[in-house]
Amino acid sequence: MAKINPETLQFLTDLKKNNHRDWFHTHKPDYDKVRKNYEDFADVLLENMKSFDPTLQNLEVKQCLFRIYRDVRFSPNKEPYKTHFGVYFAKNGGKNSDLAGYYFHLDPEESFFGGGIYMPLPEYLKTIRKEIYYQIDEFKAILEAPPFKKYYNGIEAIEKLKKPPVGFPADFPDIELLKNKHFFTSHYFNPQDALKEDFSVFASEGFKAVKPLVDFINFTIL
């Protein structure tokens, strides 16, 4: 059973204060150590998840881990490094998959895990909205299931449309659901909780609780 080490959170905290190449180069051995700690933790999560999601069977953790190096070419923020660790477990390529999946985000200031789809392809978004419209009772049952509600509070309202999406009636009782651009849900937790011995079990159960949402989306777009 792997857990996040205190040194991992401390490194990310220090990186926020020293986000430049000279500092990172000097502390590269520390980075390698804490990166390995996060990778080991993510590997335990993945192995746990394979027991309830067979679509992840052929996935390796190295396919799922995001790089810490930022692409600053088109960003006004020129800081070279991300100040968090992230991993995305999904069918067809892990972090490179365009399907719904599971995400774990470790940040000293805001940590969370969850599942669903973020920034879906336009054709996927249209299809997901259409399926929710026609299968609204099934979709709402997923969001109201006790295991889901233990961890999550519905679809996270990020960048929602102000008006109903084109092609859907404004008087649809659950039009607010269709206004979402992303169909993802998150469980925010105290980063210090990740240091506990049993936190990987807690997070794995959280992923299991969100699997019906992931399945609904992937069944819709595949």
Fold blueprint:
Layout: H1 6-17, H2 21-26, H3 28-50, E1 85-90, E2 101-106, E3 111-117, H4 122-134, H5 136-144, H6 146-151, H7 175-178, E4 183-189, H8 199-221
Antiparallel strand pairs: 1-2, 2-3, 3-4
Helix pairs in contact: 1-3, 3-8, 4-5
Describe this structure in words.
This protein is of the alpha+beta class. The chain has one domain (6-221). The chain is 43% helix and 12% strand. Strands 1-2-3-4 form a four-stranded antiparallel sheet. Strand 2 and strand 3 form a beta hairpin. Helix 3 (28-50) packs across helix 8 (199-221). The longest helix is centred in the first third of the chain and has 23 residues, at 28-50. The radius of gyration is 18 Å and the shape is globular. The two termini are 34 Å apart.
Per the principal axes of the C-alpha atoms, what is the gross shape?
globular
Main sheet attributes: strand count, strand direction, barrel closure: 4 strands, antiparallel
- Listing every helix as H and every strand as E from the N terminus to the C terminus, the arrangement reads HHHEEEHHHHEH
Query: Strand order across the biggest sheet?
Result: 1-2-3-4
Tell me the count of domains. Answer: 1
- The count of helical stretches stands at 8
What fraction strand? 5-15%
Radius of gyration: 18 Å
Q: What is the rounded distance between the termini?
A: 34 Å
